[in-house]
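Thread: "does anyone have the structure for this chain?"

Original post by V.I.:
We have the sequence but no experimental structure in hand. Need at least a predicted one for the grant figures.
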Amino acid sequence: MASEEAVYQPKDAVTMAIRSTMITGGAGAVVSSVQNTLTKQNVTAWGIFTRTGGTIAVFAAMGGTYEFAKLASANLRAKDDSWNPTIGGFLAGSILGLRFRTLPAVLGYGAGLAVLLGAYDYTGGVLTGYEKDPNVDEYERKEALRKNRRRPIQETLEQLGEGRGIYGPGYDERRRERIKRNYGIDVPVIPTRES
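Reply from O.Q.:
Generated one for you, tokens below.
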């Protein structure tokens, strides 16, 4: 029985590129305003466009180029895989490298961002690790993990010894005898909640 792949549904690359350009341009405006605020000279509020406005342009161009290249390559190849973010990342990184006006910077930044975004997409596109089963209660899962890794108290006492918050059964009686034998002091018996 041959497995059937899902049919690729084309996406509107131009609309998504415009939307991405606006979003990343807005982020660039925020970064530009922070840069303008931190300058040592007084450059007025319009400095976010006149003095540090290149930041807005680079952010907007990178975001729009990435989204358009990613979706256009997906539409042309009719596949939604990790090569699409890699292609988009290369072109967006190249835009960032254009600020330095050297071919090695263009290729280096392009390759760096391509590897980063391609690897991120290839590994699932999450930074939080593997996805947990939504059908398992979190408390039940943690209790099962605790029981799975729990060691018997005798094994712990053999390896670490008593003290530091680890006490075996009959510890109070052994302690009382040891203090009596070593120091000659009678330690009174204090009733505990268990007795």
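V.I.: this helps a lot. The two ends are 68 Å apart (CA to CA).
O.Q.: and The helical segments are 13-37, 47-50, 53-77, 83-97, 103-122, 138-149, 153-160, 171-183.
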